[in-house]
Every structure is written in C-alpha cells, then in structure tokens.
Please model this.
Amino acid sequence: MHDDPVQLWAKCLDVIENMINRQIYETWFKQTRGLALSQDTFTVQVPNQFAADWLEEHHLSLIKKVLGREVGREVFVGFRVLETVSQKVEPLTLPLARPPPPSRPQIAASPPGGGGGELYPGYTFDNFVVGTCNQFAHAASLAVAESPGKTVFNPLVIYGGVGLGKTHLAQAIAHYSTAHGTVERIRFVSSEQFTIDFINSIQERKTKEFAQTYRHVDLLLVDDIQFFCHGQKDRTQEEFFYTFDALRQSGKQIVLTCDRPPKELTGLEERLVSRFKWGLLADIQPADYETRVAILQKKAEKDGLSIHPEVTAFIADQITSNIRDLEGAVLRLLAYASLFRCDITTEVARQVLKDTLKKELRDVSIEDIQRAVARHYSLPVEILTAKTRRKEVALARQVAMYLARHQTHESLKDIGAQFGGRDHTTVIHACQAVEELAMQDPEFRGVLDRLVKDL
Ligand code: ADP
Ligand code: MG
Model:
C-alpha cells in the first residue's frame, strides 16, 4: 500500500513525465513533492502560489487521473506552498517576485528604528492608485503618515473586503512616515503576530519585554484585527487593549485594518470597539471600472508587460471582485507571454484567464450552495435548513453559510433567513468558525476550495 506520500507522488511523476511535454514537466512538475494522503485528499507540495494556481488550472484532471490510478480510488488534490523547495530552483525565469501574502505571521529582521512584521517595498503611496472607491481611506492614511499621533484620526481603522488594498495602505503609512522622519519607532504586525508574540512572552516569562516592545513605539500598525476574535483570545485582547490605551495616552499613532466594519466583529471586546470610534473608520470599497483599468495599467507597466488598452479594458470589465485577482491576471499573462513568446490579444487573455473569468461570471444561488455542500457531506439538503444541531450537520451548515456569505451578494439577514430562519449573528458566527477551522486545518481548506470550484 501507499503509506508514503513522497513515494506515491514520485510514482505519479514518473507516469506524468511520460505523458506530457518535457518543458511543461520541468517547469511545473519537477519541483513538486507528495506531502500527505488523507481519507480523500492528496496534498502536493509546490514551490510557490503561482505554481499551485497553474497546476490547478491546467493540469488538475491529469493529476487526478494518474493519482486515482495509483491509489485505486478517486482522490481530491490540494496544493500547498512550502518555501523550502523554491530556494533550490526557480521554476520560471520571470520577474515573478510577488511578495508573499503579508498576512502571514512573520518575524523579520527589524528595520532601523523598530520593526516587527515585514514591510513590502512596493506597498507605497506612489504605487497606490486612488479612485472613488478608496480616496477617503487614502486621504486619511496620508494625513496620518504626515503627522502620526497628531491628527484626530487616532486610531485610524481601515476596513474593507479581501484584496482591496488595506494592507497596502497600512504599509504605505509605515513607509512614508519612516522615509519622512515623522516617526522614529514603528511596529507593523498582523494581529496573529501580536498574538504569537504575546503568548510567547507569557511562556518565556517576558511579558515586561513584550509591553516594552509594543508600547514604546511612535506608530503601531496592526493588520487584520478580525483574527483577535477567533478562539479563546481574551488575554490577548486584554493585552491589546492595554497597549492601545498606553499608546494613545502618550499621543502615539495607532493604525488598524479589518476585513469588516468593527461593529460586526462579534467576539471583540466592546470596550475596544467603542475606542475605535474615538478615531476614524475609513472604508475601502471594491474598485470601480476606471480604477481597475488604472491599476492594471500600473501593474503591467511595473512588470514590464505591455498590454493593449483593449485587453486592459477586457480584463477590467471581467474581473471586478478584488485587486489581488487583477494582479493575478497580469502575472498570469506575463508568464504566458514569456513562456510562449506571443502577444497578448484579447483572445489570448480570454484563454489564459479562463478559469478566473468563469469564477467571476458565475451566478451562484444559496440553493446551489446548499445542494453542493449537502452532496459533499452526504446529507439530505433539507437538513441544512432544519432545526437539528447534530455536530456533522452543524459543520455542514456553517460551511454553507460561509460560502453563501462569500460567493453570493446576499445580506447576512437574507442568508440567515434561507437557513431555516436563523439570525444574522448565527451567520457571522458560522463564518468565523469556518475561517478559524480553515486557518488551522489545511485539509479543511482544501475542502472549501474544492466546494468553491465546484459551485
Ligand atoms: P487587503 O489587505 O485589503 O486584503 P492588499 O493590500 O493585500 O489587500 O491588496 C491586494 C493587492 O492589490 C496588493 O498587491 C496591493 O498592492 C494591490 N492593490 C490594492 N489596492 C490597490 C490600489 N489602489 N492601487 C494599486 N494596487 C493596489
Ligand atoms: Mg491584508
């Protein structure tokens, strides 16, 4: 039997190598490894996100077929990015220096004058395209960067959906105020990093040092504070609260980002939420068409890719959800143009971005989601809207609510209503529970991704 995922995958690679073009094999498969085989999912280790996306989009059915034959049953395939592989060989000789997702907790070497999380050089005001969707948040951020702690925007809370530029703006503040000397000591961290630092400080009996590090800065930026609400983090929240007060009392600037309006953060202490109102809440809306075009042009320019205006217009028209997806599109076109040395026409763009576009264009209903989830968990679909609280039903229901929240435009209230008349707070709770589980459990993340794909 195949207990060892490494060997199992090596066997599959032997087969695949003989089935496809050598260059494609070398580019996309050679650096992969088998990572894990669970009940129904095989996880493949890949060197970077781009490879994961590419394999998933272009070679998934081949991989599934070969794996299925080796294992003797149908398996789902998940990809996992593990950096260690990428250090050996770069898969593409392309300027694919996309920064790793900033939300990942990182302990970087401290830049002069402070530090904490890593700052990405490209996340500056200069590289930020301003449109009606984000001009308010941009103006507030610039004001704060110019006079940290001296405006009424303290704290500045930037909130908005995924991939709309919150981290970019927060980092732009950090870059600007460092470059212009408006602050000396900066700390930029994700809320996860804050939590990790705090927990470590307790374990190592260094809570004094922790307080010292976090309270003696001129500018503290905490990214994605919604993670403070996950799980049992009462003590972390309390510590954050004290940090917050200490900084604010001594006139230091606090900048926070959040993926939703703070008042929707169930599980965040009320005294914290009410303190956010002392400063400024600035939202970022999804980008309008003109902003999307401008962002595409800027990204393409930066990556040295010339895209015909017609193609830019086509992409901006098709990809509307978030800016990260727009960037992904440019990256993909860049790879394509370089691998196949061809010009990017609208037709090429349509072909290369096929799957992304499909995702954007589809129109999923809550019933579709309920059916897909019920099928996945082998449950009758009616049970998702029924009263039962049986554990396996509860999880399936939460997953369905989460997908409804993220894959449709329905309001929390309407989603709750369509799940047997449940309250909107139940939906919020479900989303948090699912996000939390997804953070802890890669396999569960695979299930979610698959459900999304299948919708
Ligand atoms: P969030 O933190 O809101 O999830 P990010 O700040 O990580 O989103 O932004 C996602 C990507 O989109 C980043 O690479 C960022 O540089 C880019 N981006 C977002 N907004 C803009 C903008 N207005 N102009 C240029 N690039 C943007
Ligand atoms: Mg972010």
Q: What stands out?
A: Confidence is low (pLDDT under 50) at residues 84-115. DSSP finds 21 helices and eight strands in the chain. The longest strand covers residues 41-46. The two ends are 33 Å apart (CA to CA).
